[in-house]
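Folding problem:
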Amino acid sequence: MTEIKRCPWCAGDDLYTAYHDSEWGVPVRDSLKLFELFILDGAQAGLSWITILKRREGYRAAFNNMNPELMALWSEDYMQELAQDSRIIRNRLKIKSAKNNAQCFLKMSGCGIDFSDWLWNFMPDNKPIKNHFSKIGDVPASTPLSETISKELKKKGWTFVGPTIVYAVMQAAGLVNDHFTDCFRYNEC
């Protein structure tokens, strides 16, 4: 029996492995799913992705199933409750950022901007960039493209969208294929 080769970062945790095998790097073209990734990756800032992944269902429950229309209306009282909610990372700045980014998402939508189209328009021919990495040290934390997208999001008022967070979203949402070249998902994505 041959061993399935995976990117080494997902080893040792069944949830992480399942996420790697079924979600990470698969191109996402749904605006609301992309919004969710930005919210979750913003929450990840300074933490590991597995920390957020283990709380993803808690985030969905606490954050109105990632509905930007509801999130944009959060009261100060509700945000205070969220700051005490053990299902999520209880960082007040990250909670405030989630509300802010929901408002920014809705503002873009109100101006006729489809978030998915807007994001994918940064990609050459609207297609994923296929990288050729074979070890952890080869994978960048950010790129000039993630810096450009970060700057554009910040111009639109978004917060917790630095180049590293943007690049993490690009990887998760399949805008870039950063599966290692020997990973069984590399050619699939």
Notes: The two ends are 24 Å apart (CA to CA). The chain is about 50% helix and 0% strand. The beta strands are 129-130, 176-177.
